[in-house]
Design brief:
The protein has 181 residues and is mainly α. The chain is built from nine helices and no strands. Helix 4 packs antiparallel against helix 5.
Length: 181
Amino acid sequence: GRFGWRGCMLRFWLAAVLLWLGSGPHLLAANRAETQAFNAAAHSFRATIWDRAEAEFAEFTLKFPESPRVPEAILLEAQARLQQTNYSGALELLQENLEKSENWRDQYLFWLGEAFFRQADYKSASEYFTRVLREFPASPRRLEAGLGQASALAQLKEWEGLIKLLQEPGGWFETASRGNL
């Protein structure tokens, strides 16, 4: 045609910019709605209104399934379920989403251990706490996972395993006793 390939490229980029500009307000509104929904659920969570927090985080994940905050929302929804003694509901939610937990994986494993512990399934609790310690040595949940594992082993009366855990060179207990955790 009259403008050649440069004209085609110019028209393409002009159309792309116009589309982008036209969608801008919608994207900003969606982002704002997403942030507001998450913040409202987080507020309910911090206020310990567990049933409302659970419902709001569930609604968030349904309404914004592509949000990068979905793994965090699922984790907080599961914690809200735990606070309401819905251990099986928390376990189901965490297990179904463990593979998609991304940067929250150590937290998911920890809370799976915690849910199993509260359900008195000490063997499973110990396994999940062990995974936190082995797979995530720098996790902020390391000390709690170690204490959870030790408590689970004590409940199981696995004294040899407990002693081995506490005496492990460079393990969580030795590190914590030196104040390095």
